[in-house]
Amino acid sequence: MPLEQKNAVTADWLVRGENGAQLVPYVAGRHTGYNALHQWLSVEQGQPFTIGFAAPQDLCLFLNNQLIFKADFSANYTLDIARYSKGMAPVEGKYLLTVWHPEQQPNINTFRNQPHDPGLLQEASQRPLSVRMRDYVNQNAFIVFMLLIGLLYGALRTNFPNDFSGLFRLDSFVRTNALEEGVLVKPIRSLSSLLFLLAFSLTLALLIAAIHTHVQQFQLVNQLFPVSEADITTKVLFYTLLIFVVILLKYLFLKIMGFIFGLEQVVRLQYREFIRSILFLGIFLPLVMLLYLALNTVIPGTILLISNLAVSMVLIVTLLRVFSVVNKKAPVLNLHLFSYLCATEVIPLAIMLKLIVFNF
């Protein structure tokens, strides 16, 4: 018989049986409709019992049917079970841990035992129901990528000064005829165009990786590309490649939709304005990353809000700019054109906002 583990969470999860009176072993793939999972824990008082886990918003933890934790937002958390077991009466020497979510089955695979670190835990009297401490990842990778972004933009300014000036001057951004100047008139496959897009993709990818501090919070990417939590470099590179490919494929998407709607004449103008807007607005994203690196450990909630607003502003302002420019060529109030813009701009925007901003 294996020795009973004390102050440790195990893989022995339970669910309520069909009659609801007994707990039966949880079987992955079979018990998919259960929003509550349970585990009996042996707690040795006086010793730390720290667990870490990824929690979507509204995930709740109960100990002996008493609420001890509720996730106010999606993040990675740490919790000392031993603290909350004080004053509770054990049942035959054990405590029943319950993990429950109102809308989905909790991801119990993220629950793990952690070495005790008093610096990560706050006094129980300060936060009786929720521990809002994130597992802060090592920021060295973010700093290295920030330096790389700075070098990349510096190289672009040195080697393509006319293109750089044409893209990032405010007066060029507000002039419609600037779409016929500089890098915007070059084929998208030109070296300068690809490098500017790569710089933007890397910048946006870095900010998204900072927002999604742990990859399992981004459920779509976790299903398509199971990246290790700790490998921030892999996450950033993957996001960069994904953003870069999506931007390039958008032109093909616009060509197809333009052919379907019979609006091929606006495709080139629409795509140029899209490229100009995201590149111009993307130059400000490194400032948000600097705020993240400087203040995320102090005011994580505020920094998360600022980061989400920055990404939202880039996407929404780009959408408004595209509508404005296309409207000068053909009235947007035309129902046919309006439907086309909704299909090519509004719906993709809603999807991106859902995946990036409202995923928390």
From TrEMBL:
Domain of life: Bacteria
Keywords for this protein: Membrane, Transmembrane, Transmembrane helix
Spans traversing the lipid bilayer: 136-156, 194-215, 236-254, 274-295, 302-323, 335-357
Pfam families: DUF4271
Name used for this protein in its record: DUF4271 domain-containing protein
Annotated source species: Pontibacter saemangeumensis
